[in-house]
Amino acid sequence: MPAPKRVVIADDRITADAAYRLACEGTAMLWRGDFQNARQLLQALARRADRKPGKAATTPVESFNFHRQAQSQRARTLAMLLMPFNADHTIPLRRAPDVTAACTEAYGVAGEPYVATLRELLGLIGAHEWRKTGVEIAALGDKIHPHYGVFAPVRGEYVALVADMALPATNLAFDIGTGTGVLAALLARRGVKRVVATDQDARALACATENVNRLGLAAQIEIIEADLFPPGRAPLIVCNPPWIPARPSSPIEYAVYDPDSKMLRGFLQGLAQHLEPGGEGWLILSDLAEHLGLRPRADLLAWIEACGLTVLGRKDVRPIHPRASDASDALHAARAAEVTSLWRLGAR
């Protein structure tokens, strides 16, 4: 996000209405008051932003586009409340918490004073807590500890699909776009003797490495930096690409948004040449894009055909995340119909 063009000093005396007007105008407020009062002000700004009526949509695509526009505008508005930081990541405000560990994990060494949005800071704190406590993965029988900027495996249905599918072989598997390393760890725990997990994001590589070591699986899993496939062939190649073909608005959204289905198509295009004879490629993909009108099922099937692949089978599961049953969600109709599938693909 670019730096604001105009910044004013604000403290406990500013009203929520005045702050909201400034934020909507694009004027940022550098906070000099009590930290906890700043948190309350941010909540007040969020309530005002959420009261803004949304545009009426006539198609699922319009609903999605209007939803994304509203999200983007809300994010810009709430980003107008700035916090000052010292060079050691401490916050020079009354009642400010100790956030040095959270900021160090996300930013590294600062070396000089800086400012960041309060909204982002709260995200850093949340990410730090998740990293400390971990996310319980039932299929793994253990926890995965996501790092800041790496998508947390909170949607357990896709992990369960991989846990329940019969393995075509146990000598080798590739995990493409490993993220936290959860699927690589699951395959290793299921008895795959060697798993090569790839990613091209530095945070994901560090996160996966830490999780693999924490789980005691370093002897079975190799984490390497690669754009999709590692060298060679494998009898099992697993990929859980982003499922919505749209432009992400922040780095972490690359785990959800895949412009022009680039990663999905790249996986399909390279799969046949990296599969051993008789091997299987497991594509784990939500059909939410289909219900939003962003990518027809016919396109996916045509890409599979064009890449010299055949569908060996498919297993479906309905999502269990809260949004699937939240009727107030702008995309409720699509989310309620969503199905996540594990496509078993083979080379023709």
From TrEMBL:
CDD domains membership: AdoMet_MTases
PANTHER family: HEMK METHYLTRANSFERASE (PTHR18895), MTRF1L RELEASE FACTOR GLUTAMINE METHYLTRANSFERASE (PTHR18895:SF74)
Gene Ontology molecular functions: methyltransferase activity
Keyword match Methyltransferase: yes
Pfam hit, one: MTS
SUPFAM superfamilies from the UniProt entry: S-adenosyl-L-methionine-dependent methyltransferases (SSF53335)
Residue span, Methyltransferase small domain: 161-285
GO terms, biological process: methylation
Listed transmembrane segments: none
Organism: Actimicrobium antarcticum
Key words, A-Z: Methyltransferase, S-adenosyl-L-methionine, Transferase
InterPro entries per record: DNA_methylase_N6_adenine_CS (IPR002052), N5-glutamine_MTase (IPR050320), SAM-dependent_MTases_sf (IPR029063), Small_mtfrase_dom (IPR007848)
The protein's name: Class I SAM-dependent methyltransferase
